[in-house]
Amino acid sequence: MTTTAPPEGAPHHPPRLPRPQPVPRSPRPGLPLPGPTATAAALEEFWADVRRRGTPHIGPDPHGSATHRAVTFLWRGTPTTRAVHVLPNKLADPRAPQDNLMERAPGTDIWHWTLRLRHDWRGTYDLFVDEGDGPAPTDPDYWPWLRTRRRTDPRNPRTLPRRWGGDPVPYAELPAAPTAADWTPRADVAHGTVTEGEVASAHLSTTRRAWLYTPAAALSAEPPAELPVLVLLDGEHWQPRLGLAHLLDNLIAEGRIPPLAAVLPDSVDAATRWRELTCKAEFVSFLADELLSWAAGHLPITADPARTVLAGQSLGGLTAAFAALLAPGRFGNVLAQSGSFWWPDGPAAEWLTGRIADGPRLPVRFRLSFGRQEWVALPAARRLREALAAAGYSDATCTEFNGGHDYLCWRTELADGLVALLGDD
């Protein structure tokens, strides 16, 4: 039996669990490498070819499988390079960081690291380079220090904006991975507008920045009488950095979703996010009473919970589900991606799943998605799926994509979820 009130004082981190399966490294590189007697000209030719093809290098599976690929990450070292650490999203074990170290091809400046991955994988990744100016590799401070030595991948032009700012994060996509074409700005569709405003909140004792997307149809001579509404958490990343409006413009133009309003509150910073997105009733009241009232002052948005979607990722996914349980008369659709349903780490773990199991079946639709590489979140997600089924949520769906805890994956999952929940509106 779960407690009625959400737990307080939980640690601000997920459970510290080892990766249950080893990182899927390939025993040999996924492309031919120059040998130790290679000339300088041969090395230059190798790197020129890498530059033309881009990184990481995608090659055939060493075992001959049509459904797998060899993915080789590459770095051109200097005479002082001691190590290169590769961290693809959730393809690492924090308790065995040495497993993600590149190897140097003997007698060359080529550092390489190869994974064997299913051909629908996609993920962002980081590179950290030790140029010999820090602690010795045997020093206890070595790994924390190395994590401060992030470098961009100069041979990969594909990047996404990084969460909380900084240099863009590079990514890779294998041939069968879902396409993100829906996010590409198009000149041949009608464009909505995005405005930024401040929402006064008595529930949060502050004002909160938010973005409001108005569809092109609402700007026409005959605007809709009422608009479905999407509330998308972590708005400062989804709109100013990722450009959510492009996705909505395209989906609406193709008739895959109806013209809708989208309201995107700012999550401010990591500390505020942890404080507010861990099953806090006052934050739900802000969303239901103040944020949507602010939006209704600008657009004719629906009050129908069946035409309202609350979406979030990670802690935002946890909050979306909690808000629907607390206010099902306002939020009738939950779109939770990689939701932190393990929360809290410690006593009363998976608290929200327990509440769903103990509570009545509410008029709420759940659409959940999780990455198969999320070894901490995925077991809790599967238990949530079982709890929803046992509680009578026969229309709940839960999909698993081949990726990690990653906006690269969430952006296509968001598009699919909106079409599934609102496409027949």
Structural description of this entry:
- With 425 residues, this protein is of the alpha/beta class.
- Helix content is 25%, strand content 23%.
- The protein is built from 10 helices and 17 strands.
- The strands form 3 sheets. Strands 10-11-13-12-14-15-16-17 form an 8-stranded mixed sheet, with helices on both faces. Strands 3, 6, 7, 8 and 9 form a 5-stranded antiparallel sheet that branches.
- The radius of gyration is 23 Å and the shape is globular.
- The model has no long low-confidence stretch (mean pLDDT 96).
User: Looking at the structure, what is the overall shape?
Assistant: globular
Say how many strands there are.
17
Strand order of the largest sheet: 10-11-13-12-14-15-16-17
Unreliable spans are none
Major sheet characteristics? 8 strands, mixed
Work out the helicity level: 10-25%
DSSP strand (E) fraction?
15-25%
Overall average pLDDT: 96
Figure out the total of helices: 10
Radius of gyration of CA atoms, rounded to a whole number:
23 Å
N-to-C CA distance:
37 Å
Structural topology:
Layout: H1 40-53, E1 57-60, E2 68-76, E3 83-88, E4 103-104, E5 110-118, E6 122-130, H2 142-146, E7 150-151, E8 159-160, E9 169-173, E10 193-201, E11 206-214, E12 229-232, H3 235-238, H4 244-253, E13 261-265, H5 270-276, H6 281-296, E14 308-313, H7 315-326, E15 333-337, H8 351-358, E16 365-371, H9 377-390, E17 397-401, H10 407-422
Parallel strand pairs: 12-13, 12-14, 14-15, 15-16, 16-17
Antiparallel strand pairs: 1-2, 2-5, 3-6, 4-5, 6-7, 6-9, 8-9, 10-11, 11-13
Helix pairs in contact: 8-9
